Amino acid sequence: LFGQQAKPKGPFVPKFEDYQKVYDAVAKRLADEDDYDDGSYGPVLVRLAWHASGTYDALTGTGGSNGATMRFAPEGDHGANAGLKAARDFLEPVKEQFPWITYSDLWILSGVCAIQEMQGPKIPYRPGRTDRDVSFCTPDGRLPDASKDRSHIRAIFGRMGFDDREMVALSGAHALGRCHTDRSGYDGPWTFSPTTLTNDYFKLLLEEKWQWKKWNGPKQYEDVKTKSLMMLPTDMEIIKDKTFRKHAERYAKDNEVFFREFSDAVAKLFELGVPFQTEEKWTFKSSFD
Ligand code: HIF
After folding, report:
1. Which atom of ligand 1 is nearest the CA belonging to 156?
2. Which pLDDT score, from 0 to 100, does residue 98 have?
3. How far apart are CA 224 and CA 176, in angstroms?
4. What was the ipTM of the complex prediction?
5. Does domain 16-142+267-271 have CATH number 3.40.30.10?
């Protein structure tokens, strides 16, 4: 009789293999759900992970990816977060399949997965984020405003603890995805391959001619040759500012250098404000490894 009793079970402590299973499930959904935008939810997953992280304020230690407070109305409704419900909804079936993972760890893991699955560099990852309640929502205005100039870029990313080089490295993520008139008001993609991460953003910025787009929407640039690509005012600052431009030129010249410095900067972004219990970081296997 004693032998038939259920063994006392400790709490489930997920290991690397368990998080890799979550990665695999997100990667599979990315491949399956190819009817969205340019054929992938990848870009909007990267934007979700970055907007969860980019609220960090180094001075007060508030904001950042710990908490997943964008689930709640005040933060989810901030203008900068328009459209990110598509990304959060996309992840719901994964959360249901792996209820043990926190939303905050899942959003960042999914950003990592999206970057790797879109042929970007490996992004080291560690779990440890906890979900927090509505009282941890950050005030509006912490995410960047695309209509502004270099001083705004430096103020926003400086507040998170980034230097000029890291700001430019991060900017390369605009190789991915597009602007939507019903979200930000801006329109169009930055590159011809918006679901593959390369240094094309820097190449196009430096090599194409850009002019103001003539339309009723917010001020944005279009490429003179095809008029099918766009740059935000903040994107153009990356080649107008001498220090920013120096890094843009390095990245345009060498995709490997871009990948290395991009990976470091993104890994840092995704960990801002998280009180980790472990030093060890993991590298997930991509679906094509
Ligand atoms: Fe973006 N960004 N970003 N961004 N962003 C948009 C879309 C994406 C800024 C503005 C916008 C970063 C910095 C800045 C991605 C990733 C990153 C859009 C369009 C705007 C307006 C939203 C829409 O209409 O759907 C500004 C002002 C930034 C500071 C200069 C990061 C570096 C580039 C930190 C970053 O990683 C991604 C990916 C998208 C595409 C989303 C999509 O749905 O396709």
Report:
1. 29
2. 98
3. 20
4. 0.99
5. no
